[in-house]
TrEMBL record:
InterPro entries: Cation/H_exchanger_TM, CPA2_transporter, Na+/solute_symporter_sf. The chain crosses the membrane at residues 12-28, 40-57, 77-94, 106-130, 142-166, 178-202, 208-229, 265-284, 296-314, 320-338, 385-407. It comes from Streptomyces halstedii. This is Cation:proton antiporter. The keyword Transcription does not apply. Residues 413-434 are annotated as: Disordered. PANTHER family: CATION/H + ANTIPORTER (PTHR32468), K(+)_H(+) ANTIPORTER 1 (PTHR32468:SF0).
Length: 434
């Protein structure tokens, strides 16, 4: 009710703020294209820096006039709505495709590109402890803090990776499909570990019971939705009225997300459950409704970036040390580049393909920011550490294209092909656009 009253009392201010955010997001995407970067890099960077930049150019009183608390509350809700709707499509894409790579090759790459970065997360926690960086440590329970930092260092963003593969003409290659299938597995493992970390963040048995209740409630809603979607009337509705179906799916996702949040779990978990519950294409053509829901969320996610910049990063710029930022970036790169390379070699790939796989696994992007938002909202990740991880996510994503170019040029100089003609095991995986 507070959101509704704030919206009704400041409708023009809210509309103007949303318009400004969306225009700046468009400018960020255009700048990213000009720099030959994924659009999400420009969009996220602009969104996160709007608030800190305005505050740096003015004083706090002027900033509060431009963006009063009532308007910010509405923007928070809009940003959360965008995130929830976007996650429906992302989680749906995490479902296994009709084909799969051989277990040996897939497990080899996952072992390197996921397990190895987990250890770099432990190293980062150790560094925070050794430097006695209380601002980056916060006061969350140690098991939850360690697990969430490890997950944040291990994420490979499926949406951005899919876009990079498409831009470089690698989507239909065995190498590109193998990378995407591995990223799907790693992100699925990451979501499960994120849920566990948030549950551990409760800090006591009653909190864990509350998190368990939230998971049961969200899972129950997702199960009811899936059973309903498997019926003949639902399939007919999907075929005849895809837009209406998309609206109903969006409402189900928002309702489940708000329920899980009210019960003590992040709304992100509820949204992911709904995405996973939607049947695959073999049972009904859900592609169009799911894509419509995800596109609506993608349109609103710039608001989420702006709110994150205002509520999390403004104070973090002065509290985060350069030691923390540098160590996070170095460990993030080492974990994915080296881990992806070693995992690919373990899976039997040639050295050129293994180097390319390590670069692809280093792509983090929007998925990383979603994990960080969940960890910060749960009180596990303090703002300075979130800032360091955001810089790491944006930098590693921006590095992907140039590093792939370097690897390809090195392959050509050696007389090899820039993409491997044959890799172990057939792969069929689906990607998503960011």
């Amino acid at each position: 009710m507070d959101i509704v009253s704030n919206l009704l009392s400041h409708p023009v201010h809210v509309i103007v703020a949303l318009a400004v955010v969306l225009v700046l997001a468009r400018a960020g995407r255009a700048a990213a294209r000009w720099l030959r970067q994924p659009e999400v890099v420009g969009e996220v960077t602009v969104g996160l820096l709007i608030g800190p930049a305005v505050l740096a150019l003015s004083d706090r009183a002027a900033f509060d006039t431009l963006l009063p608390a009532e308007v910010l509350d509405v923007l928070k809700f809009v940003g959360q709505t965008g995130l929830v709707l976007y996650l429906v499509g992302l989680a749906h894409k995490l479902r296994p495709g009709p084909g799969s790579p051989s277990q040996r090759t897939l497990s080899g790459l996952v072992a390197g590109a996921f397990v190895f970065p987990l250890t770099t997360g432990l190293l980062l926690v150790g560094l925070i402890h050794l430097t006695d960086d209380t601002a980056a440590r916060g006061d969350a329970p140690m098991p939850a803090f360690v697990l969430l930092v490890a997950v944040a260092m291990s994420i490979t963003a499926v949406p951005v990776l899919s876009r990079i593969l498409g831009d470089r003409g690698m989507s239909d290659t065995t190498e590109g499909q193998f990378a995407l299938a591995s990223a799907v597995v790693m992100d699925s493992l990451g979501w499960m570990m994120l849920t566990l970390a948030i549950g551990l963040g409760a800090g006591d048995l009653s909190g864990l019971w509350g998190s368990g209740l939230a998971l049961l409630a969200g899972g129950g809603c997702a199960l009811l939705l899936r059973l309903g979607l498997l019926t003949a009337p639902a399939r007919r509705l999907c075929l005849r009225m895809p837009r209406t179906t998309a609206v109903l799916l969006g409402c189900a996702a928002m309702g489940t997300a708000l329920l899980t949040e009210r019960l003590g779990m992040t709304a992100i978990v509820g949204a992911a459950m709904i995405g996973l519950a939607i049947p695959g294409e073999a049972l009904a053509p859900w592609t169009k409704p799911v894509a419509a829901v995800s596109h609506a969320g993608r349109t609103l996610t710039p608001v989420f970036f702006v709110v994150t910049g205002v509520t999390v990063l403004i104070d973090a710029f002065s509290a985060a040390s350069w030691t923390l930022i540098t160590a996070t970036l170095v460990l993030g790169c080492v974990g994915k580049l080296l881990g992806g390379y070693l995992g690919a070699r373990l899976a039997g790939m040639p050295s050129g393909s293994a180097r390319r796989m390590g670069v692809l696994m280093n792509t983090r992007g929007l998925t990383e920011l979603i994990v960080l938002e969940a960890g910060h909202r749960a009180g596990i990740l303090p703002s300075p550490l979130v800032l360091a991880l955001v810089i790491m996510a944006l930098t590693t994503t921006a590095m992907t294209g140039p590093l792939l170019g370097l690897v390809d040029r090195a392959e050509r100089r050696r007389g090899g092909s820039p993409t491997a003609p044959g890799l172990p095991g057939p792969v069929a995986a689906k990607g998503t656009a960011p």
